[in-house]
Write the structure tokens for this entry.
Amino acid sequence: MDIDIIGAGIGGLTTAIALEQKGIKTRIFEQADKIKPVGAGVILANNAMQVYENLGLRKIIEENGNHISSMNITKANLNLMSKVDLSFFEKKHKVRNIAIHRGTLQQILMNELKSTDLNLNHHITSVEPNDNGYALMFENGEQIQSSTLIGADGLNSVVRQNLFPNSVIRNAKQICWRGVTDFKLPIKYKNELNEAWGKKDRFGFVQIAENKVYWYALKSFKKDKDEFLVNDIETYFSNYHPIVNEIIDSTKEEQINTVEISDLKPTNIWHKENVCLIGDAAHAMTPNLGQGACQAIEDAYILSMCLHKYDENIAFKEFQKLRLPKAHQVVKASWILGELAHLSNPILIGIRNQLIRLAPSSLNRKQSEQIFQIPNL
Ligand SMILES: Cc1cc2nc3c(=O)[nH]c(=O)nc-3n(C[C@H](O)[C@H](O)[C@H](O)COP(=O)(O)OP(=O)(O)OC[C@H]3O[C@@H](n4cnc5c(N)ncnc54)[C@H](O)[C@@H]3O)c2cc1C
């Protein structure tokens, strides 16, 4: 069985590695002319690291990233409201949570590919079923025949639009700036992700390597993201703890990228005949739980197990059965958390902060437990 994958993001690359390890040959088609690192970090939580442990990549990822032992929600002044202590899960699943530069992770994944045929500069424009499978049409004029296809082409997936034209992208009306900067954090922050919540905005920061910090900042907008300017980020967050402004100030403007936050309204079907969606193409989520890439990585692993065991058609059904309920649960929880984080009414903010502070750590642990658990590894 040969398999074609559209998209060389974290989901597509991890799928190719997992399939290679099961002896299945893949071709990847990626629109970019080179794999460019996004200037941002990514947190690989316990569930993703269990997969990478299984694929033999845990050690190299740990060596190139930074160990995160707790995830904190704080007030704008960095006073702690809630802490998820990750050491419990690290002991249970025998892997750590790692924050890493996206470019570094992409390079590790690319280096791991052995038999996969990676075709850059291939922007897919349509997928047309025919007697032998699918004709894949590319912007560069090429037409390629495929028997089995995986759509790992992200939130705006062309594969999905061809198969399921009625899917709905939801705009969360939040602008997000992400940056990576050379910055020496005080030692107490070294192994923590801290996310500070203000009024209709928040700021997160985490060390991703020695003296390298990844940060993100979000603000709610009314009509469109142009209400805010990248040059004014420091002003928007001037009422936060002084370190927030120091981090922003230390970042070169070209190291900051801007995105609008959106997700995909949960859909009940991810596959049709010999085509299947994974990652953001199937279940894009808002980044509020830091799980989008982790869920794509879980998809990659579970799908490779299903394709190893069954023919494509059954494999895709089994994959959906195993993955859809959990992925949708995370999509929903992420959306709700984003709404909570961006409240504007001071009374509601006070109640929210009080509830977060009072929430028992057993509740936080139970929620994380459900996310970090992976079936049948
Ligand atoms: C601000 C922010 C912070 C985040 N932080 C985290 C985090 O800490 N942890 C975490 O787990 N997740 C995080 N995420 C989510 C995570 O980035 C995504 O869920 C993840 O990248 C999805 O991977 P993917 O491979 O499915 O899709 P993508 O990363 O979108 O990759 C899709 C690939 O397909 C290619 N492609 C697209 N269209 C075509 C086409 N027509 N033809 C050919 N190729 C195409 C693209 O060029 C790209 O290479 C965050 C997201 C955001 C926005």
In short: The CA atoms of residues 67 and 98 lie 5 Å apart.
